[in-house]
């Protein structure tokens, strides 16, 4: 009788050990799956943080390039005030020479009409010479517009026709918007600016968006990590 009871207890103990071993195997598999999931999440979070840092670094580089090109030219420009210029005289004075490259050690000469325009700024009696933009003002001290010299005769003829049409337009429409130097250090006024407010704002848009996007990616990853740790702590307290 005692033998039978001992055998029965030994069998129940063996089945209990077998159940515990199966449970431990399932638990080990579950823990291993959780570790794999955590590792995969950590790898994804690391890649996301690197992406955010790369976007921020790229935006800083873009800011640097813009700072030494567009922003520098915009800040150094003295034609900051916008006003109304009244055309006093619009005359095509002469044909100006320009040269273009026609091959290795080959340069040829073409011509374009030089349009001179003198205006009065804001009806103040201050007479200035009108120029197209900053580049034209640096290239010529006489002409409103200095075209790019081209070897195509049809293209140069179209430029000549355009300059003549502008001359006729200014003789009919006496008032044009212009930019002038408020300190009166320059005797020229500009018809347009290469880098105005809208150009500067558009150039700063993309690096600003990239900087904001990179910062948001890092912020979301850090917030996700914080909420994950908070959930784990709450789960431990409940247990």
TrEMBL record:
Query: Where does this chain mainly localize?
Result: membrane
UniProt keywords (A-Z) are: Glycoprotein, Ion channel, Ion transport, Membrane, Transmembrane, Transmembrane helix, Transport
Q: Name one Pfam family in it.
A: KcnmB2_inactiv
Compartments in which it is found: Membrane
The processes (GO biological process) annotated in the record are: detection of calcium ion
Quick check: keyword Metal-binding in the entry? no
- A GO molecular-function term, please? potassium channel regulator activity
Which protein is depicted? Potassium large conductance calcium-activated channel, subfamily M, beta member 2a
Report the source organism: Oryzias melastigma (Marine medaka)
């Amino acid at each position: 009788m005692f033998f039978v009871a001992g055998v029965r207890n030994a069998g129940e103990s063996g089945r209990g050990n077998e159940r515990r071993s199966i449970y431990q195997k399932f638990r080990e598999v579950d823990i291993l799956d959780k570790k794999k999931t955590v590792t995969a999440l950590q790898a994804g979070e690391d890649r996301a943080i690197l992406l955010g840092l790369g976007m921020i670094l790229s935006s800083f580089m873009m800011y640097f390039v813009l700072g030494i090109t567009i922003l520098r030219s915009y800040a150094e420009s003295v034609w900051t005030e916008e006003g109304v210029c009244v055309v006093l005289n619009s005359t095509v004075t002469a044909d100006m020479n320009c040269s273009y490259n026609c091959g290795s050690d080959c340069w040829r000469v073409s011509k374009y009409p030089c349009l001179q325009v003198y205006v009065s700024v804001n009806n103040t009696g201050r007479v200035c010479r009108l120029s197209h933009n900053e580049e034209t003002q640096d290239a010529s001290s006489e002409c409103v517009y200095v075209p790019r010299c081209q070897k195509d005769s049809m293209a140069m003829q179209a430029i000549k026709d355009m300059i003549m049409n502008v001359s006729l337009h200014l003789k009919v429409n006496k008032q044009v918007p212009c930019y002038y130097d408020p300190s009166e250090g320059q005797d020229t006024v500009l018809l347009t600016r290469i880098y105005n407010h809208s150009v500067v704002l558009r150039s700063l848009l993309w690096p600003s968006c990239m900087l904001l996007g990179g910062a948001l990616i890092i912020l979301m990853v850090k917030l996700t990590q914080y909420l994950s740790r908070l959930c784990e702590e709450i789960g431990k307290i409940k247990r």
